[in-house]
Fold this protein.
Amino acid sequence: MLANILFRNYLNEGENIYFVAHTHPFLMYPVFFRVIFIGILVPLGFNIIMPPFQIIWLTWIGMGSVVFLYEIMNWYLDAWLVTNQGVLDIQWDSFFDKSSTRIEYHMIEGIAYEIKGFWGTIMNYGNITIEKMGTGTVMTLENVASPKRVEQEVLHYQKQFIHYKNLKDQTALRDILVTMAQESRRGK
């Protein structure tokens, strides 16, 4: 539900989000802990030691809280959205700097993932790439949590999309043939 609210501006009409892939939180912990320590815990300690300067410490805590919220949003809003129409790569760098790249399922030439290193293997994170057919454009999400699962989700929804599209095309072809046969009978 949160993804539908935060990412709705990137979706086409009738498009639904099935899966959201993020960078593994393990890689964000150092940033989160640094912001919590420097932005919140240090001024709380100073507030205990030097209470007359409480306005300074509260301002510091407020700014630390804003930075912490910004880092969480930066992590959450940098994502891949697997939808009923394709895959969107959302890049969120700030409130005023964001972009997206879309590859529709029928344009996916290949998908691959790689897990490198000790921590990548232990914590199950790696890079996943999708190549767009005909253009050589590559869309990459680095350090994604469970890259094999993300690959399987994309392939699963791609298969569903192609199956539905084939059924739709068969129905349209059948309707055309029926119309042609009926017109042929009327003409005789």
